[in-house]
Amino acid sequence: LFLKLPSDSFKYLGWCDIEEHGVQGNQLRCPRVREGPSEEELFFRKEEHTLKKRKQVTDTEKWEKRLQENWENCAELNLSFQDLGDLYQVENFKRILRRLIRVEKLWLVDNSLTDLSAIRLPRCRELNVNKNHFTSFKQLPKIPQIQHLSLAENNITTLSGISDFRHTPLESLILRRNPCEFQERYRQLVFSNLPNLKMLDGIPKLPEDCSPPEISFFYRMCTIL
């Protein structure tokens, strides 16, 4: 006999929907912000019994929820592994990102993200977007104060657009397991576009990373001989 767990009726609820608690968004380090399925999806899944637990939300309740979320005061936040399976969930996710005006450290790992170019994170110093579906630096959010950026395991094929970070305080960049890593003179090209960069893929800037291409090539030829 299949019996539902006691928490089954709450599986699609966000923390804001739980009554009688005063937890604010900036008090959560790893909140689950993925919204539950739509009413149509629940009906398709034959889980329409959960619809009875949903009520019409008034404008006052929506405003109270917005204040409770309090994303504007988050300084450090982990929104990884959100399982954004539907478009309306992606839009809700971006709605929250647009409110992170004070966040300094942000993790968005493994969320199947493709384009955050319309998002601005004015105070973000550390951003981890590993294991997403970015194909270009142009698809990243606006991060003028970035110091540490991790883009491992995306699908960035070229270094086009990387110079947009030239005038940021970027010190550390991780591009491991992206197609651009196999580009000829990869490290030299990255450092030539980002002269203030100190570390690439966990390796500090080396003298040969600053050498002109023809000198570096001649040096390698001599070493082989």
TrEMBL record:
Keywords: Leucine-rich repeat, Repeat. InterPro entries: Leu-rich_rpt, LRR_dom_sf. The keyword Repeat applies. Gene3D superfamilies: Ribonuclease Inhibitor. It comes from the Eukaryota. This is TILB protein. It comes from Sitta europaea.
